[in-house]
Amino acid sequence: MEQMKLDLNNYRNLLKEYLLTKNETVLYQAEQLSKMSVQHSISPEEIINVHIEALKDLHPELPQEVTDSLDFLLEAMISYGLALQEFQFLRQKQFELESEISVAARMQETLLSTVHPSVKGLDIGAISVPANQMNGDYYHFVTDKDGSLGIALADVIGKGIPAALAMSMIKYSMDSFPDNQREPSLILENLNRVVERNVDPSMFITMFYGLYNPEDETFSFASAGHEPGFYYHASEDRFEEIHARGLVLGATHNATYQQCIQKINKGDCIILLTDGVTECRVGDRFVEREEVRQVIKDYIHLPAQNAVDKVYKYFERLQEFHLRDDFTLIIIKKEV
Amino acid sequence: MDFKPCVTIRKEWDIVGARQLGRKHAKELGFGTVDQARIATAISELARNIYLYARTGTICFEVIDELDKKGLKIVAKDNGPGIRDISQVMQDGYSTSGGLGAGLPGVKRLMDFFEIRSDSEKGTEIEAIKWLR
User: Fold this and answer.
1) Residue range A251-288, pLDDT digits in tens
2) Domains annotated on chain B, with CATH
3) Is the interface score ipTM higher than 0.85?
4) Coil, helix or strand for A208?
5) Tally of domains in chain A
6) Which candidate from B38, B93, B133 shows the least CB-CB separation from A78?
7) Strand, helix or coil at B91?
8) Does A19 touch chain B (CB under 8 A)?
9) What CATH number did the domain enclosing A50 receive?
10) Chain A contact for B86 (CB, 8 A cutoff)
11) pLDDT at residue A23 greater than cutoff 70
12) Which of A45, A85, A93 faces B37 most closely, judged by CB atoms?
């Protein structure tokens, strides 16, 4: 704080000139001096002190009351000086925290990264964007030699760091399940036990698991209280909700999950999403599911990745580029 | 040097007495107006802590006059309940009296040296020094 002493001579000259000329240029220079003082953590009481000294130099005949009153002012400024230092310290600390979080976010991206697989006969598009730095949504693709495709999509109620930590747990539990365990309902039952045992009861995770079987061209799925997706029947140009009964993960110990199956025809699409999509907020209003469906419909003819990007761009613009919740959308289109 | 070393803190009024005595010593040692004001503010904070949390205690002054440096040492001592979590009270923005006042981090900033010891049986002792430049 001492290295950049407020230069008394400089201040005295400026003050003298101002008293003589009342010139705006001098005031502008005083403004520059003020900015520089803040940058160098010079407190208000030091400026007042310099002011007192300069004034005494210029006007030695000043009445005692005036100089005394300036001493009084100096005393009254002490807490502002402390507040300035505290502010600078806290800003530094905030900067450190932010860079720590961005390291964690990059690490999360690496840990939870999933390869968009190329599966014969399917066109797959996926996008997941966090509202803050860390993502509380998670999706993962699992492929198998026989050409089947598993799709996991989960959403932690809440966002930010706690949500992101819970997601890592989901991913590593899934990795530890044996390869032959592919039934959606069983996967959710096992994950439910892991979550129930390890996660604070106030934290809920919703999840959808689906398995595409190329042999009979079916999609079997189960849901743990997850936001229902859509099934698009191409031949009828019609959407249908994808529903399956099941409680959110972690709510009870022995939850069971209904497993459903859907035959997939050429051109049909499976659309999976999290509530960051359906609960986009515009002002005080939530977007209706109907509106979401309409927007998806507008882009469904595009290649899958292109379509999810376009839908995201639409809602990003609608919310004035400020996401309220993590946003994840997956579209799987049957090509042949 | 004529030196009255200590002020006992029992009521809020005593805070003023401690400030006054501290400022007198600071002035005699040759501290400038800004440092005098900072020392007085530090004394206020220390004395207020005693008054609010320990009820009674003392603020003592000691002039340090070594070959290469001069300074004023303030020692605040009480037999109060002690501070359970020192790192918490030393955090910026933490103040049980509702965010008013500079708190102990403020005292640390106002002075050049700061040391705190606290014990639930013996109370709290804080030493702070301002060096004359």
Assistant:
1) 888 899 999 999 999 999 999 998 878 776 666 777 77
2) 6-131 (3.30.565.10)
3) no
4) strand
5) 2
6) B38
7) coil
8) no
9) 1.10.1240.30
10) no
11) yes
12) A45
